[in-house]
Amino acid sequence: LGRMACPTQFLCRALRTVGLVLFYYVFSIGITFYNKWLMRDFHFPLFMTLLHLVIIFSFSTLTRFAMQCWTGKPRVTLPWKVYLSKVAPTALATALDIGLSNWSFLFITISLYTMTKSSAVLFILFFSLVFKLEEPNPFLILVVLLIASGLFMFTLKSTQFNLEGFIMVLLASFIGGIRWTLTQVLMQKAELGLQNPIDTMYHLQPLMFLGLFPLFLLNEGLSVSTTEKLFRVSELSHLLYSLVTLTVGGMLAFGLGFSEFLLVSRTSSLTLSIAGIFKEVCTLLLAVEFMGDKMSTVNWLGFAVCLSGISLHVGLKTYYNKGNGPMVRQLPVRDNPDLELPLLQTKEDYCEDTNDEEEQEILY
User: Fold this and answer.
1) What's the confidence (pLDDT) of residue 134?
2) Which residue has the higher pLDDT, 128 or 351?
3) Residue 150, CA atoms < 13 Å, CB-side half-sphere
4) Could you give the CA distance from residue 21 to residue 156 in angstroms, rounded to a whole number?
5) Residue 267: strand, helix, or coil
6) Do residues 259 and 28 make contact, with C-beta atoms less than 8 angstroms apart?
7) In Å, what is the CA distance from 99 to each residue of 45, 82, 255?
8) pTM over 0.85
9) pLDDT tens digits along 51-104
10) Inter-residue long-range contacts of 290-297, CB under 8 Å, 24+ positions, other chains counted
């Protein structure tokens, strides 16, 4: 009976994984096209980002309340001193990453955005080495060369290239490297108790709002206060339309974070990494088909070279995390085994009687 149950259990897990990946794609690809669509008529990306942060915070608060009622256990709430000293750097980096990314949609196409954002792997690698989260490895040089050369080929002779938008999203990728490295450090500190991303999002949003608000005032404050789409609207229906469309974006942003958590907690971070590679392919194909993005043969070749570099990086992390050598260094977790996230599960692991409600944590 055990042997018969194992293939069935494996099939159920496979179907569940496919479902979670598709669920993640809906929010991840959806918010990319939503941002580009909204920026065509609504030229206030920082205001949009601030509103999204408020919506994410509201949904995180409601989710935490529901989880507390369901489990009967209080959720973690950090004291102010720890909150400001430990969470603030991550919040500021996250706010600038998201803000600049959304801002870039005023200038660049989805394909250029997607490709340039792929360079975030380079910066994540760099800061992981700086913070000693990863061990130096000669293969990482090849990863860097492939991604960098692919990005160069993609932007070479691009008919839809915009330097201002390209610099914005490249800077966002650089800050994103700091963001995800600090997020990994934050979530691996067991004494903080922020291993659950819902708690992390709850604590990050207020500081992200405060960090981005001065930039909003400097660049969009006066324009937003006088726009006919919001505060000087002539008809109520136009105001309601703007508020509804902005709220949909906030729901997509929260759904993206939640779907990433579901995918990693029910599968592994490797699954999320591989799904991210195919997501970029789908995004580019959809952008060319529906958004009128133009790509030459050299651009497609550059995209393929970049993806090969990302795939090599994922493969290397898989190889070394299977015990073939040190590459990823885990932070001290004070004897908390729940923070260990296996990147690969063997077939035997699928046959074991595991508890599906056990949460594995995101280690980015």
Assistant:
1) 67
2) 128
3) 26
4) 32
5) coil
6) yes
7) 7, 25, 18
8) no
9) 999 999 999 999 999 999 998 888 888 888 888 988 899 899 989 988 998 888
10) 290/33, 291/33, 291/36, 291/109, 291/110, 293/109, 293/110, 293/111, 293/112, 293/160, 294/159, 294/160, 295/111, 296/157, 296/158, 296/159
